[in-house]
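Training component of the fellowship. As part of building independent skills, the fellow (R.M.) carried out the full modelling exercise for a liganded target. The chosen ligand was zinc ion. The inputs are recorded below so that the supervisory panel can assess the work.
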Amino acid sequence: MHTYAIGIDIGATNTVIGLVRNDGQIVGKETLPTQIYTETKSYIHDIVEAIRKVMKDCKVEAIERVGIGSPNSSYETGCIEENTVNLRIKERIPICKMITEELGVPAALDNDANAAALGELVYGGAKGMSNFIVYTLGTGVGSGIVIDGKVLRGHRGFAGELGHVIVDPHGRKCGCGRVGCLETYAAAASICRNYLEAHAEMTGSEPTEEQKNITCKHVGELAAQGDKAAIAAYDKAAYWLGFALANAVAFSEPEGIFLFGGPTQVGDILMKPLKKYFEEQLLFLYKGKVLVELSHLPSNDAAILGAAALQ
Ligand SMILES: [Zn+2]
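Fellow's submitted model of the complex:
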């Protein structure tokens, strides 16, 4: 018999509510435009109504839980904290409590990287694994670390900022104020920068204004067509990721590491050099023993699956 959970992905543009079956199938979806909401009460009201609607439309009478993936969220308190960039509502939102009061089921909230890790565990490639790490590559680089079957949360809930491990202390300035974080080489905008630098080096000329506005997706397309600067851009990201992943292995000895997010969609262009650099940097104890793979979750729905796995 099937059971169901609700996964909610709170993005800057849309709040997507998905009804997820226990085998990982998303059987129904509702979407709310996040930016029309300026008040907590109406936002939660509409989320709850959307949950009721999707259940009714899919003839599902009961759900086991509701999970919410949102930046700036606290798993401990179940609240989206004040001044979340994605939202126009600036006050603290006790979203879990409010949803549980309306629907009578448990609700859990976490950031998107931890949600991605749990999604991988429940519905993806980490099924059956007790120790693994998920890296999320996108606007920034995030990570969710699972140790002995549990997400590592740390003393105050901020564990797992592996995008901000310093890989090159003489490297690029990071948005966090320090120098040489992994994120400055492997986030989407960083891969664009890798490309512009490689292009300038290879051609000896400064990039045009149009080139300066290139997207990571476009760099990926160029790399797929064999563009040398674009391939070098991914190779640079892979190089520093290789270091960072090898260091992370020394910390928690995961069985597998999964990579997720827009920049990973180039597949082997990133993964092939990454696996090579990773193996080169691994401590001898771990060589050949740690799986490095793309996330098994479908990219469009991973955020919803991750949220639905939260509990
Ligand atoms: Zn940083």
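The panel noted the following from the submitted structure. Residues 164, 174, 176, 178, 181, 183 surround zinc ion (CB under 6 Å). The radius of gyration is 20 Å.
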